[in-house]
What does this fold into?
Amino acid sequence: MILLDILLDTIAQSGQTSPIAPIVSDIANWITIIAFPLTILGLLLTYFQSRKSKSAAEAAKESAQQTSAKMESFQSIANLSKNIEILKTSPKLLADEHWWEVAACLRDARDQLIALIAKEGEHGQIRELKDLKNKVNIDIRNLRHKSYDDTIELHIDEIFDRIEEISEIFVVKQTELKNM
It folds into this structure.
């Protein structure tokens, strides 16, 4: 089209009238008439392709989020399993008066409780988990002090009960995650 305009402009500037000028003008008009609907069609195709791309991107994002959630769930299951096994050794360590080791086991369990509290948000058994975490913090402190000072009195039965309670919570949570 531009070439036709250049040709017509060159002829017009020279002051000559060309016999092909009307033909060139007609061809330019027909090209314009044909190009307009093709342009509209191209715009429509571009619009629909962009909608397809958007929906494909949204599907990919959703899939990535689901995969991330599953990976997080698997990681939580693995952490719970590890802490359950650690807690199984705690009663024997407690009975053998390995205070520092029991404190380390309870510290790991406390960290897992904190992770559960963070995931529970404002629903679920959040209050009970926070209370249990606070009691475990006190137990950890007392066990560490006991490892240095034999005069400190421990409530060993309460510590046994807390270990059992934490283990039960972890087993229940692990089962919930496996069933998701």
The chain has two domains: 2-47, 66-178.
